[in-house]
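Sequence of 3-hydroxybutyrate dehydrogenase (Alishewanella agri BL06).
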Amino acid sequence: MRVVITGATGGIGFAVAQAFAKAQHQVVLADLNEQLLTEKAAQLQAQGYDADYCVLDVTNPAQIADCAARFPADILVNNAGIQHVARLEDFPPEKWQLLIEVMLTGPAMLTRAMLPQMRANNFGRVINIGSIHALVASPFKSAYVAAKHGLLGFSKVVALENADCNFTINTICPAYVKTPLVEKQIAAQAKEHNLTEQQVVEQIMLAPMPQKAFIDVSEIAGTALFLCQDAAKHITAQTLVLDGGWTAR
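Predicted 3D structure, token representation.
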């Protein structure tokens, strides 16, 4: 099966790509940076895996249409994401809009483009990479939290609209994952809260999590693989929360 993964050169995206490649799926890496895409695809190909790439800006309708035409997906992983940390009154409006476009409108439009072929094949799996912030909130992240909350509602609607065929859509919501994106957040939060970076990790990021640990990218990749197995064919419109007990309180 063909798996298209957005944000595929990043920590979570490439871990998901590696997992699906090892499971003998054809993997298509989709991201903005063509040089990085070439390198990552070559890395998989050198290991004997079936890998290709597609330059994709998920806010660009023409590129979405081109990706869906060239690489119609059996499995779509909506993973592309960005972050900006600021109080709402200091949040640049254009930056706020960009976060919504990348993490809510983009997944919706790419899913929309892939759906006709999935329905024609009577098989489709859409996996959204959400966040603990699809369920809870943190200060200074209004756009990110809004986008991730919206992703859950979007997924439920699409699941209902396509319940007449072998199609599922689910959202994986991890607590903090140690990726370059989170590393940048640590520095930004340290500045915003006037704390050291270690204090941000201990007092903000891991404080609400009973297990006191970052989520590993392999956990997210393994959950995505599970959602594509026959054992998960009736799991749809669901939120799979990898949070070490955070939301139990």
